[in-house]
Amino acid sequence: MKKIKFIFPAAIAGFVAISAVLYSRSSDGSKVMESYSTTSEFVFSHEESKSEISLESLCVYVCGAVNNPGVIYLDEGSRICDAIKKAGGITADADINSLNQAEKVTDGQKIYVPLIGETYAGYSENSKSSLININTAGVNELLTLPGIGESKANAIIAYRNDNGGFKKIEDIMNISGIKEAAFNKIKENICV
């Protein structure tokens, strides 16, 4: 008799629980599913925006003859042409041929798109054209630097490949055989 008193209420409680689950699914199952899908969409879009932020790690200022000048964010490894495109493209009177559109952008860089016939004193290609970029130069270019032979040129390339490039020109002194005296001979001829 004790067993029946215990089993009977347990069976009724189980029946009520099963009925409640079935009833809630049939009467407002769509709300439960709607709430679930909204939550999962939010989580997905939140995670997506996090990944977008981490990918867009370069901040550059694009100005001059572009449609939407200002500060923009780009993916690592982006080129000047990508920055111009993200700034709304060029205006009709832009001298786009004066820019090296294939050049990789660096964080904090200012990209000025001049007008046709305009000479801009701060334009980077004019100021950097005679400089050797130690982050992109090949062995032959590096050999033109005073005091840099083939072994040091190869060491420069190996260092930038292993360390993700040079952050500032002074970082070249981290290479064996290039100390302050050697750096002073080449510092006016290099850039990053």
Automatic annotation (TrEMBL):
It comes from the Bacteria. Keywords: Membrane, Transmembrane, Transmembrane helix. It holds the Pfam family HHH_3. The chain crosses the membrane at residues 6-23. Residues 140-159, 170-189 form the Helix-hairpin-helix DNA-binding motif class domain. GO terms for molecular function: DNA binding. GO terms for biological process: DNA repair; protein secretion by the type II secretion system. SUPFAM superfamilies: RuvA domain 2-like. InterPro entries: Competence_ComEA_HhH, Endo/Exo/Phosphatase_dom_1, Hlx-hairpin-Hlx_DNA-bd_motif, RuvA_2-like, Soluble_ligand-bd. One of its GO terms (cellular component) is type II protein secretion system complex. NCBIfam families: competence protein ComEA helix-hairpin-helix repeat region (TIGR00426). This is Competence protein CelA.
